[in-house]
Design goal:
The protein has ten helices and five strands, in the order H-H-H-E-H-H-E-H-E-H-E-H-E-H-H. The chain has 260 residues and is an alpha/beta fold. The protein has two domains: 1-30; 31-258, Rossmann fold (3-Layer(aba) Sandwich). It has a five-stranded parallel sheet with strand order 2-1-3-4-5, sandwiched between helices. Helix 8 links the parallel strand 4 (178-182) and strand 5 (211-214).
Length: 260
């Protein structure tokens, strides 16, 4: 019985792959298609020039100075919110800085993570700060969206549409880069379902040519969907050193394919 079932599953997989090969529509990236219904969500903001989150004018200036100084040597750019920001050290996570130096420094990385940023804020960073005009990275990672939830009350459909706009902006500003879009990390405060629902939409933005997708949820959670002990910090949102190590290994596996 098991052999029959395995054969059936294998045949089904082969049929899907054949359909993808013969008809591009079934497996086509949805990156160029607006997410239906997003505009109906009051939490969805098409703001491209918001005030910098938490007045991070100084951090923008520092990152622009790094881009001017290191320029074309910057091969890897990490884009996101505080989870990305804290690769350089932070109160909630801990351990990101040591992993960052040990695992990612060889790529001369530029960290464009900004604590508190939502999708519309990071869209502004990508499009309007002039940072990307100073660099030509080979790999860009993006993990954004968790701050759209909580007090901001956005829903998954709207958040996914906003992430789509961020990816499109990255394609425009970093035309020579491979973009690795990460699913929103799981969180232990009751909003994890929104993260997972958003990820179900944004995974289809990948074309596996320029835009790729990876969800680290299976490496951060157990078989019951609970956060694995020690992966996240005490707030159950920002990674601890163990979580950053898992993330670093994922980034390295991808970056080493395109950064020689």
């Amino acid at each position: 019985m098991k052999r029959i079932l395995s054969s059936f599953i294998a045949a089904a997989v082969l049929a899907v792959l054949a359909a993808c090969a013969s008809s591009g529509d079934a497996c086509k990236s949805k990156l160029n298609e607006p997410v239906p219904g997003a505009e109906l969500d009051p939490g969805y903001q098409k703001v491209t020039t918001p005030a910098l989150s938490q007045n991070f004018v100084q951090r923008i200036a520092e990152k622009k100075n790094q881009a001017q100084t290191e320029g074309k040597n910057i091969q890897l750019v990490l884009v996101g919110d505080s989870i990305t920001h804290f690769w350089e050290g932070g109160f909630f996570g801990g351990g990101g800085q040591s992993v960052y130096q040990k695992e990612l420094s060889k790529y001369t990385p530029l960290n464009l993570g900004f604590s508190g940023d939502r999708t519309e804020n990071i869209l502004h960073v990508i499009k309007n700060t002039g940072i990307f005009e100073l660099i030509d990275p080979k790999v860009v990672t993006l993990m954004i969206g968790t701050n759209n939830f909580g007090m901001h009350e956005a829903e998954p459909v709207a958040t996914a549409e906003a992430i789509r706009l961020c990816v499109l902006a990255l394609k425009e500003k970093a035309p020579n880069a491979k973009i690795l879009l990460y699913g929103i990390f799981p969180r232990g405060d009751g909003l994890g379902d929104k993260c997972a629902a958003t990820n179900e939409i944004i995974k289809d933005f990948a074309d596996n040519k320029t835009v790729f997708y990876e969800d680290l949820t299976p490496k951060f959670t157990d078989e019951n969907g609970n956060l694995i002990q020690g992966v996240m910090g005490f707030d159950r949102l920002h990674p601890a050193e163990k979580g950053y190590q898992i993330w670093a290994e994922s980034i390295k596996a991808f970056a080493d394919q395109y950064i020689k």
